[in-house]
Amino acid sequence: MARDVTDVFYNDPPEDDREHGKPWAAKYLSISPMTRILYEVREERGRQDAKFGPDRDQPNGTGNPAFTWYADAAKAACDRGDDDGTVTWAEILVEETFEALAETDVDALRAELVQVAAVAVAWIEALDRGRRKSDDNGLCLCHKCVCATCGRRWDVCECEDEA
Prior knowledge:
mainly alpha; about 160 residues
């Protein structure tokens, strides 16, 4: 069976190549900020599965008419914010979340949840862009290129900070 590069990247890091919690292939591949975020999401999903079990099949709990009202109100707030340039990430995420909660159709719910996830990733990207700084020597201070355990810097910072 042919193996996908992402499968090898995420599932088969050589034991001697695991370095202070850093994705092993990052030493060899330039990964995008989005890929790094999705890696973090994958790691969180692993922690959730370890805590709650991998096969949680509780009901969706969507389709409540109140959610439709909240979705409409959140959309109106986002539209106003778009018009006057004041929309926030929180408003966008709330709108997408209530649109998902209002859904009764499973396929439409899935599509809305993908939109929720995409907004969350975009918001994280914006947070990371806002945190990029360099010290007086031009070394990145994003804290993603410094081991939290030993303080050692990795050879190449992945945050793409050019400052």
